[in-house]
Amino acid sequence: MEIERKYLISELPSNLEDYPVRSIQQGYLNRDPVIRIRREDSNFILTYKSSGLMIREEVNLPLNAQSYESLREKIDGKLITKKRYLIPYKQYTIELDVFSGELAPLILAEVEFPTAEEAENFTPPSWFGEDVTFDGRYHNSYLSK
Amino acid sequence: MEIERKYLISELPSNLEDYPVRSIQQGYLNRDPVIRIRREDSNFILTYKSSGLMIREEVNLPLNAQSYESLREKIDGKLITKKRYLIPYKQYTIELDVFSGELAPLILAEVEFPTAEEAENFTPPSWFGEDVTFDGRYHNSYLSK
């Protein structure tokens, strides 16, 4: 089960380069349910997510470089490229996605929670913008269209 | 974990129509790892299997009719169609696959086991033919080529 909230970001933290960062490339074989392929640095992953906005079932399965490249030929819409910074905040980790390519200058922050209650009670840091958790347009599967 | 043995069949049991049967249609988005879509009567399933012949990790995830039909446009090679009969045998269930279309008159039997030891000690019924467990040509992913 994946429980997360998502926010628009207009201003980046000034010390961004202090945090771990990953280069991500991803595309969608299907949108409902989500069947996604992702390259994260040198890791290749197939992800399945059931329908839903705040709460979704998620399964991650390993791919190799060859299968990733072959499946990349089959995606719908555009390949998404972004840098993901991992920023500790209270007991959570903020995943800050800085998009490149056609989606720039979009920046989104996601926070995952162990329970729906924690997700509902979450107070975001002051530099977070609009809460878009329930706005399907900011799902990466929609952004890839 | 999926542990199974596979056999060629040349002669069908005479009472075949006494057993439950399912109509199966399936195709492969990728072969290594296996990423398969399957329609089984009115159920739609995405399956992931890691590499291997007798023992493989297997994950099954639900699809809907629309996603199945969309993914079917993306398969490599041919769509496989077959009837699967479920035949009780000792404490096991024989899955007897009678292929139609280009693969007819191929017939294969598969038996799944809870442990590798039981798989190794299995004595097949007399009507089973050649053991092709370790012959990759009889994997459905290969047959779809």
Describe the structure.
2 copies of one chain form a homodimer. In chain A, 12% of the residues lie in helices and 48% in strands. A 9-stranded antiparallel sheet of chain A has the order 5-1-9-8-7-2-3-4-6. The longest helix of chain A is centred in the middle third of the chain and has 8 residues, at 65-72. With 145 residues, chain A is mainly β. Chain A starts with a strand and ends with a helix. Chain A binds chain B through residues 29-30, 32-33, 35, 46, 48, 50, 59, 61-64, 66-67, 70-71, 74, and chain B through 29-30, 32-33, 35, 46, 48, 50, 59, 61-64, 66-67, 70-71, 74.
Keywords:
homodimer, 145 residues, 3 helices
Proportion in helices of chain A: 10-25%
Structural class of chain A: mainly beta
What is the strand arrangement across the widest sheet of chain A? 5-1-9-8-7-2-3-4-6
* Ends distance of chain A: 25 Å
Strand fraction of chain A equals: over 45%
- What are the secondary-structure elements of chain A, in order, as H or E? EEEEEEHEEEHH
SSE layout and pairing:
2 copies of one chain form a homodimer.
Chain A: E1 2-8, E2 21-31, E3 34-40, E4 43-49, E5 55-56, E6 58-63, H1 65-72, E7 76-89, E8 92-99, E9 107-113, H2 116-121, H3 140-143
Antiparallel strand pairs in A: 1-5, 1-9, 2-3, 2-7, 3-4, 4-6, 7-8, 8-9
